[in-house]
Amino acid sequence: GQNIDQPTEMTATEGAIVQINCTYQTSGFNGLFWYQQHAGEAPTFLSYNVLDGLEEKGRFSSFLSRSKGYSYLLLKELQMKDSASYLCAVRSGAGSYQLTFGKGTKLSVIP
Amino acid sequence: GAVVSQHPSRVICKSGTSVKIECRSLDFQATTMFWYRQFPKKSLMLMATSNEGSKATYEQGVEKDKFLINHASLTLSTLTVTSAHPEDSSFYICSARDNSRGLAIAYEQYFGPGTRLTVT
């Protein structure tokens, strides 16, 4: 089966750094995605990891450890507009484009 | 960049009626589109994979006779919720895969803005 876990909610202060963790147990692995979703809107792509290590993109970084089935999304210099849900998603098979999503982490950024 | 549209953005219908939701890829061709459902405070659940010119592949537990999917062209897939009931009220989101991008490309699914269905 597929199981993806991430914290339900987190709160952080504007200007700070926050790390959102994701652990997964899937029948296969061909990439891990992070998406941002504001309430009532569709998810928007943030990052993609398929090899171990850190991928940095501006204020956002994502890390993957395949042996541990673990990833995290790091958000730096938090802004109020970063308040949103962050979804971790795994693509299981090489021949499949389907994504399995975690339940999402609702991040609240406070002044 | 690749854009996916959905229509309507919101719909309210009476119990027992049918509702059609359209998903269009505006500037690229999409052999494969995906339909997701999202309940409040829950994650996206894949309902079905829509393949142009062939039958959709439904996930376990999704009734194919209730959620009719048609993917008649490379830019359009439709989801029809038949005989809708209040428990079908949800946020329905489609995504489309750009034919020109291979498996190695991360941006291969583009999401539409979603359709909020409320069944009264």
Describe the structure.
- The complex is a heterodimer of chains A (111) and B (120).
- Chain A has 111 residues and is mainly β.
- Helix content of chain A is 0%, strand content 56%.
- The N and C termini of chain A lie far apart (41 Å).
- Helix content of chain B is 0%, strand content 50%.
- Chain B contains no helices and eleven strands.
- In chain B, strands 2, 4, 5, 6, 9, 10 and 11 form a seven-stranded mixed beta sheet that branches. In chain B, strands 1-3-8-7 form a four-stranded antiparallel beta sheet, with no helix packed on it.
- In chain B, a hairpin with a 2-residue loop joins strand 7 and strand 8.
- Chain B is globular.
- The model of chain B has no long low-confidence stretch (mean pLDDT 89).
- The interface between A and B is medium-sized, with 23 and 22 residues.
**So how many helices of chain B?**
0
- Indicate the structural class of chain B: mainly beta
User: What is the makeup of the main sheet of chain B?
Assistant: 7 strands, mixed
Radius of gyration of chain B from the CA trace? 14 Å
- Work out the strand percent of chain A: over 45%
* pLDDT averaged residue by residue of chain B: 89
Structural class of chain A: mainly beta
Biggest sheet record of chain A: 6 strands, mixed
- Distance from N terminus to C terminus of chain A (CA atoms, Å) equals 41 Å
Strand proportion of chain B: over 45%
- Average per-residue pLDDT of chain A, rounded, comes to 92
Largest protein-protein interface: A-B, 23 and 22 residues
Residue share in helix of chain A: under 10%
Number of strands of chain A: 11
List segments of chain A where confidence is low: pLDDT < 50 over at least 5 consecutive residues. Answer: none
